[in-house]
Every structure is written in C-alpha cells, then in structure tokens.
Amino acid sequence: MKKTKYTILAVTFLLSFCCALYMTMQVFPNNPFLASRAKEQTSQKNRIQDGDIIFQTSESPQCEAVRIATNSKFSHCGIIYEINGNLFVFEAVQPVKLTPLDNWITHGRDKNYIVKRLKNAAEVLTPNTLQKMKDYSQQFDGKEYDAFFEWTDTRIYCSELVWKIYKNGANIELSKLQQLKDFNLTDERVKKVLKERYGNDIPLEEKVVSPSNLVDSDLLVTVIDTY
After folding, report:
1. pLDDT given at position 59
2. Which residues of 32-48 are buried (b: 16+ CB within 10 A; e: fewer)?
3. Which of 8, 28, 72, 218 has the most CB atoms less than 10 A away?
C-alpha cells in the first residue's frame, strides 16, 4: 500500500514538473538569460546600412602575415549590400561572392567585427549611387581571389575590391594607395608567405591597399565595434 502511495506521488510530481516546464517554454521559448544578448545583436544589425564596410580578423597564415605586415588586427573586409531586404557581404575570397551577413560574421575570430560608414553617406550614397556600385560589382562576382596582390581586375583581393567599388561606383578614393615595400616585410612569418608567393622576385613597387588602410580612412566613421 505504501509503495503504491509513493508511486502515485512520484508520478504526480513528474507530471506537475513537465507541465510547468511546458508552460515555461511557451512563455520563454528561448533562454530568458540570453534574451538581452540576442536583442543587442539584433539592435546592432538594424544599424547597418547599404554600402557600409565591414572588417574582421580572419584565421590563416596569410591573414596573420597581413596583420603583421600592416600592423593591424584586421585582415579581411567586405562591402555590405542590402538585396531584397536581406544583408550580404560582397567579399573577395575564393571565389569572389555574396555571403549572408550572419555567416560572414561567424568566420571571424571570436565573431568580432567592426562596421564603418562614409561620414556623409546620407548625402553621397543615394539609391542611384548604390545601384552604380552594385552594377560595377557584378564584373567581379565569381572571379578568383588574388593571392599575389596584383593591381589588376583579372583577380582581386578583399580590400582592393572594396576600394575599387567605391572609386568606380561612387567616385570616392577611400584611402591613398601604397606600395608593397611600404609595409613591414621583415617579420619571418611575412617573409615565409612572400617566399611562397613570389620566390626571390618580390614586386616591391606593386600598388596595394590593405584592410588597415581602409579602416583608418578619415572618410569613414565607426558604426559598430564588437571588439
């Protein structure tokens, strides 16, 4: 008789617990302790606009060499486009492509990123200008990534892509161009990558633009910084 009584109590408790859990999940379908973080992320993304430039720290030996050579934590960047109500990053990887913003963010170290915008974007980046930038961008879609950092349109790298889109689509030079020799090429990790790319014939006079050149541009203002 006692055993039956305890069994009934145990079953009653279990059913009550399950009901309470079910009701909690209906009221709080997501973890309530994470809600503030989720709202913060959503709020940040709502501040992003068509034509913004986004930067991150990518993980690879080449990206490490870029960071060292340019004395910057940033090694990758892209331009944000709003297409049919969705946000994408047009980026030069292998190949050049549109990547959904959320996916792009996950590729960076610790998912950190910084978004920059023209100081006078409201006046300059009109719908007509943004469309010109997107139209110009189409010629690069699907092209190969330029691991040799040549200033041509045959292949293209990330900061070169962003610089050329603004120059040819909006008639804006985001930064001055440099030469490869202007960067810090003395570090052994940088030397290793240069040796792999060029052998003993390093094109020191080649025109280049780096993510650090763009992120430090006087024409841009920071919109979001999660670092």
Report:
1. 81
2. eeeeeeeeeeeeeeeeb
3. 72
- Compute CA distances 64 → 16, 54, 61, 108, 141, whole Å: 56, 18, 5, 13, 26
- What is the pLDDT, as a whole number, of residue 132? 98
- pLDDT mean values, one per 10 residues, the chain (227 residues): 48 45 43 49 79 94 91 96 96 97 96 97 97 98 96 97 98 98 95 93 96 98 97
Other residues' Cβ atoms within 10 Å of the Cβ of residue 117: 21
CA distance 204 to 185: 10
Contact 194, 69 (CB under 8 A): no
The three state secondary structure string of 147-211 is CCCCCCCCCECHHHHHHHHHHHHHCCCCCCCEEHHHCCCCCHHHHHHHHHHHCCCCCCCCEECCH
Q: What does the radius of gyration of the chain's CA atoms come to, in whole angstroms?
A: 25
Virtual CA dihedral for 152, 160, 158, 176, nearest 10 degrees?
A: 150
The CB-side HSE value for 54 (13 A sphere, CA atoms) comes to 32
Give the pair of three-digit tokens for residue 104. Answer: 């792009």
Distance CA 209, CA 158 (A): 9
C-alpha to C-alpha distance for 31 and 93, rounded to whole angstroms: 35
Q: Please, what is the angle between helix 61-70 and helix 188-198, to 10°? A: 120
Give the C-alpha separation, 143 to 98, whole Å.
12
pTM for the full model? 0.81
Helix (H) or strand (E) holding 41: helix 35-46
